Sequence to fold (250 residues):
Amino acid sequence: MNTASQEEFIHKIKIALGKPLAESQRNVDFFKSDMSDETRGILERIKNRTPEERKKLLATLIEAAGPINLKVISCEDINSVTAAIADLVRDKDPEWGAKKSVVAWQHPLIENLNLPEALSPQDVTVFFTDVKETESGNLRQHVIDSYIGITAADFCMADSATMVMRTRPGQARSVSLVPSIHVAVIELNQIIADLKELYALLKWDPQESKEGLTNCMTFISGPSKTADIEATMVHGAHGPRQVHVYVITS
Fold:
């Protein structure tokens, strides 16, 4: 749709809503090029957020996650996350087959978990979604074969318990969608309050705006659910049946 078509479309909507003709003909800038005072205040709030305020956001996140069956686990450091994931792998069995394998993003935070070493006593293979795997065509089969997918996230919105994940080379979206269990690892400073803060960061924060939205940005609020069949609630109707978020608080 070109600009002329957009203006005509909006013009018709305004007339249908009973707007005066003069008002319907007025051009409105929906994408302002100047930062508003409200947005500037939001960015300052995020920048100056204290450790105590971040922990309050974590508490809000945990509270919001409960009703949507999203498990948020607070961990003191990265070693605690590694131990927790090893316990999860030990306690959970694949839905199909007996062989356990895990697929993980090629991401600094995930690589620092040292999962191959941590899971070797359990004889569990860890596949990383590096660029070579993607180019060779092996990635798809590794994702299908794995019952746990491990990713990072860009942000997590506390008020709705929603993870925000941008797709990049070596960080395939399928890792969070195909395996039966999705595990995400984030740091405390990645928790933000709400959509307003997310939009302000993506558009106006110098570091975030450099990268932009990438070719895909996914919002994940726990496992999917449906009660279409006999009004019985089922989690994981599409995608993972379980979603765990480990938050490094130190």
The domain at 54-224+232-248 is CATH 3.40.50.10420 (Rossmann fold). The longest helix spans residues 51-65.
